[in-house]
Amino acid sequence: MKITKNIKRILSYYESDNPGVKANLARILMSGKLSGTGKLVILPVDQGFEHGPARSFAKNFYAYDPHYHFKLAIDAGLSAFAAPLGLLEAGADTFAGQIPLIMKVNSSNSLSKEKIAPSQALTGSVSEAIRLGCSAVGFTIYPGSGMALDMISDIQEIAKEAKDAGLAVVVWSYPRGGDISKEGETAIDIVAYAAHMAALVGAHIIKVKPPTSHIEQVEAKKVYKTENISIDTLDDRIKHVVKSCFNGRRLVVFSGGSSKDKESLLNEIRKLYLGGASGSIVGRNSFQRPYAEALELLKQIIEIYKGK
Ligand code: FBP
User: Fold this and answer.
1) Range 158-192 burial, b when 16+ CB lie within 10 A, else e
2) Sign of CA dihedral 121, 126, 127, 128
3) Assuming Cys at both sites, which of 46, 167, 274, 295 could form a disulfide with 162, CB separation 3.0 to 4.6 Å?
4) Which residue's alpha carbon is at the smallest distance from atom 13 of ligand 1?
5) Contact 3, 23 (CB under 8 A)
6) What is the mean pLDDT of the chain?
7) Which of 14, 68, 142, 174 is labelled catalytic?
8) Catalytic residue among 163, 207, 239, 271, which?
9) In whole angstroms, what is the distance from residue 119 CA to residue 105 CA?
């Protein structure tokens, strides 16, 4: 595989990483229809854990089958497929080597949701990710939660183990819990802060939700005003989040959220692209649609990231 100049430049930003990590990042960046562009579209299917099977799969009952998701990610020409251990095991042989895999190594669930101190259990490990041929491990932190400090300590250990083993690290950074209001979970100051924390814990790829123009913290409000930080449009806000991730030296992808109509999603993704996002990670909006529709939607998302 020959890598493009663009990908060489991105890899050069990861100054401390060993050849194994760089090879795995290159594998993700050189797979699928966005190969070599430096942009990524990833299919995440951990919603069965996070929200339960009916809320995740009943809309499109074929999606109860793990093979459905592997096939969708491969047929759509995506950059990677992310899922928890059990789901990856269920398609490991049939789809071996066909798409880079990201093992989500921690998960929350809606049955034991905690309002103040939401947390995640470890549900996979670096050695299992290696056994299944994964390119990366994925880990969620909830900045703001009463359990945030424990989660941040856990990711520190897992990231070290993953990097030593040559795996890339993807951090889902979703603020919630503690004093953060519901509106604050996607506030621009909070999302930029959460993305920056993910960069600081050593993530190669950072995943956050698209931010709103709400500012949650009183102290931050003053700075956004005095320093004239533009946050009025979504593309301005994306620029600000990307800047908060080491001035663009880290890959930052944005989640799709719950199912919405195609045009709203595509409009949102156009703004993400304009703001300099590295890509999208779109779960429910893809697999809750009928197969052909999902393929068409993913094709259009990929076209946007190709700059078309
Ligand atoms: P979606 O595109 O379906 O939103 O998937 C992105 C994702 O990060 C999943 O990986 C995860 O299961 C889900 O969102 C979690 O959402 P929340 O924590 O808001 O319930």
Assistant:
1) bbebbbebbbbbbbbbbbbbbebeeebbbbbbbbb
2) positive
3) 167
4) 47
5) no
6) 96
7) 174
8) 207
9) 13
Q: What φ, ψ does residue 21 adopt, rounded to 5°?
A: -65, -45
| pLDDT reported for residue 257 | 87
Question: Are 177 and 145 in contact, with CB atoms under 8 Å apart?
Answer: yes
78 by Cβ neighbours in 10 Å (0-12 / 13-18 / 19+) ranks as: buried
Alpha-carbon torsion (8, 13, 16, 21), positive or negative: negative
Residue from 133, 97, 109, 6 nearest 53 by CA: 109
Q: What is the pLDDT of residue 115?
A: 84
pLDDT digits (tens, 9 = 90+) for 211-230: 999 999 999 999 999 999 99
Residues 201-213 as b or e (16 or more Cβ within 10 Å = b): bbbbbbbbbbbbe
Does 120 score more than 90 pLDDT? no
Which pLDDT belongs to residue 112? 82
Residue 152 has what pLDDT? 94
129, 167 Cβ separation under 8 angstroms: yes
Residue 119: predicted pLDDT: 86
Active site residue 174: yes
- Distance between Cα 208 and ligand 1 center (Å): 10
